[in-house]
Amino acid sequence: MQTDRTIVVNSLDEALAQTLKQLIEDGSKVAISDPLSTAAGRTTYEILNYSVRVTNPKRRFPGNPEVHFGAVAAVSRFVWMMSASDRASDIAFYQPRAATFSDDGLTIPGSSYGRRILSPRPGLNQLAGVIERLKQDPNTRRAFLSIYQPEDAVRTSRDIPCLLSLGYHIRDGRLHATTYMRANNAYSLFPYNFFEFSLLAEMIAAELGIEVGPFTHSVASMHIYEEDIDRSRAIVRGSSNTLESPTLELPSKPLAGVRGLIALEPLVRAVGHCGAHRLEEVRARADQQLAGVWRDMFQVLLIHGLLTSNNTLQAKNLIESIGGPWRRYLSLPA
Q1: Apex CA 211: angle with CA 193 and CA 206, to 5°?
Q2: Residue 122 sits in which domain range?
Q3: CA 138, CA 150: separation in Å to the nearest integer?
Q4: Domain annotation covers residue 202
Q5: What does each of the 334 residues of the chain score in pLDDT, given as a tens digit?
Q6: How far is CA 57 from CA 17, 95, 113, in A?
């Protein structure tokens, strides 16, 4: 059994390539038997108590040509988290497989991290509390967002949260962020988890008026599935041809912009019922109410909405005009 690994790298690309390499070479084979797990009947390569420290978490976009990173998946996961939604239909519009985790066909009890962070109970907002705590006491050791709850240890569900908690410390004038997970699929999920949690850390840092510092991702069971070994090897080989990782430019108070994005996102899911005139109204409204990275994120989601409703030409035009780093991670269906 392989345990207790820590690596220090500068970017997501380095973190992913080195993690996959270690899992391929040193991971212990573990067969999954839990019938409620989506991994039931499959074999993983696992390292217990694995940590990766990324010194520049702004480099959250992969430049490795072998990494199949989707802008729609990354943005939709982030927006769903920040919306505090636990409705399966909201995220399944962008990622249909998410609905398979629902026990009742309506909600996703474990993976709705945003619900647990922003609205676990009426009037309770952990994120606002953590930001205020850091403002009041920059040296605090109490700035943590709790995800895993006592009932998760005993309840029967398809979707027990993989994320345990998120912690933040201000040291040397920078925000140090730490993620604690019970399990993480390095091949298919780690890039997206790193995207959403490092972006949240950068937003908290911006709200505090400081720079984001190192991001530490600690996982009790870091693993890959046996069927992903060859694709993982390709990523390791492709690390020698990695392009420069683009970054995002966040405004000084990003939470207000995210709230605007969340307010407009439902329009994307209705775009299939819109005529051309209504579509232009939606785009004009987004241009008027959103700016910078949030407008670009809305356009990423809108491209998916257009493709879902077979408006391929309009989607192509939008891909060609989109700002930021997103075009590299968008593609039309073959």
Answers
A1: 75
A2: 3-241
A3: 29
A4: yes
A5: 777 889 999 999 999 999 999 999 999 999 988 777 777 788 999 999 999 999 999 999 999 999 999 999 999 999 999 999 999 999 999 999 999 999 999 999 899 999 999 999 999 999 999 999 999 999 999 999 999 999 999 999 999 999 999 999 999 999 999 999 999 999 999 999 999 999 999 999 999 999 999 999 999 999 999 999 999 999 999 998 888 889 999 999 999 999 999 999 999 998 876 666 688 888 899 999 999 999 999 999 999 999 998 889 889 999 999 988 999 999 887 6
A6: 15, 25, 20
Tokens describing residue 218:
């600690």
- Under 8 Å between Cβ of 219 and 51: yes
How many structural domains does the chain have?
Answer: 2
Q: What's the half-sphere exposure (Cβ side, CA atoms, 13 Å) at 121? A: 3
Residues 143 and 120 in one domain: yes
Dihedral (C-alpha) 102, 193, 73, 332: value to the nearest 10 degrees?
A: -140
Please indicate, yes or no, whether residues 292 and 230 belong to a single structural domain of this protein.
no
Give CA angle at 231 (230, 232), nearest 5°: 90
Q: How many CB atoms lie within 10 A of CB 58?
A: 21
